[in-house]
UniProtKB/TrEMBL annotation:
<comment type="function">
    <text>One of several proteins that assist in the late maturation steps of the functional core of the 30S ribosomal subunit. Associates with free 30S ribosomal subunits (but not with 30S subunits that are part of 70S ribosomes or polysomes). Required for efficient processing of 16S rRNA. May interact with the 5'-terminal helix region of 16S rRNA.</text>
</comment>
<dbReference type="InterPro" id="IPR015946">
    <property type="entry name" value="KH_dom-like_a/b"/>
</dbReference>
<feature type="region of interest" description="Disordered">
    <location>
        <begin position="119"/>
        <end position="142"/>
    </location>
</feature>
<dbReference type="InterPro" id="IPR020053">
    <property type="entry name" value="Ribosome-bd_factorA_CS"/>
</dbReference>
<keyword id="KW-0963">Cytoplasm</keyword>
<keyword id="KW-0690">Ribosome biogenesis</keyword>
<dbReference type="InterPro" id="IPR000238">
    <property type="entry name" value="RbfA"/>
</dbReference>
<comment type="similarity">
    <text>Belongs to the RbfA family.</text>
</comment>
<dbReference type="Pfam" id="PF02033">
    <property type="entry name" value="RBFA"/>
</dbReference>
<comment type="subunit">
    <text>Monomer. Binds 30S ribosomal subunits, but not 50S ribosomal subunits or 70S ribosomes.</text>
</comment>
<feature type="compositionally biased region" description="Acidic residues">
    <location>
        <begin position="125"/>
        <end position="142"/>
    </location>
</feature>
<protein>
    <recommendedName>
        <fullName>Ribosome-binding factor A</fullName>
    </recommendedName>
</protein>
<dbReference type="InterPro" id="IPR023799">
    <property type="entry name" value="RbfA_dom_sf"/>
</dbReference>
């Protein structure tokens, strides 16, 4: 009977939970602020990890770059703390990557809303014309 999840996936989940706690409690750099750890991908040999993060609140690209530099600078410290809290033979080297999916999703949602709002007036005009034609045909029959 095959296992549902690989070891790398299970380690990824536990690393994600632990990193979210460690970043919140241990990283004191003001450039980082409030961080959401959205996903962690661990290599099959458990040696490397990609940590996808996004930030709470609006930030411009310069602030995001500074915060990512601060997180990547603290990756060795976080790796040491991670090794102390999770019992692993090999603690993965962490690489922090900014997760753009939230921004991209908001942008696509705004584009869809814009397309729908532009489409609605023409639909309303068509339905009004159809309604007037129906009224005219009803009055001619009576």
């Amino acid at each position: 009977m095959p296992r549902e999840f690989t070891r790398a996936e299970r380690v990824s989940d536990s690393v994600q939970q632990e990193l979210a706690t460690l970043i919140r409690s241990e990283v004191r750099d003001p450039r980082v602020g409030m961080v959401n750890v959205t996903e962690v991908q661990i290599s099959r040999d458990l040696a490397y990890g990609k940590v996808f993060v996004n930030f709470v609140g609006e930030r411009d690209q310069d602030q995001i770059d500074e915060a990512m530099a601060a997180l990547n600078g603290a990756s060795g410290y976080l790796r040491k703390l991670l090794g102390a809290s999770i019992q692993l033979r090999i603690v993965p080297k962490l690489n922090f990557i900014f997760d753009e999916t939230g921004r991209r999703g908001q942008h696509l949602s705004a584009l869809i809303d814009l397309a729908i709002s532009k489409e609605m007036p023409s639909d309303n005009a068509d339905s009004e014309e159809t309604a007037q034609q129906d009224l005219e045909s009803d009055s001619e029959e009576a």
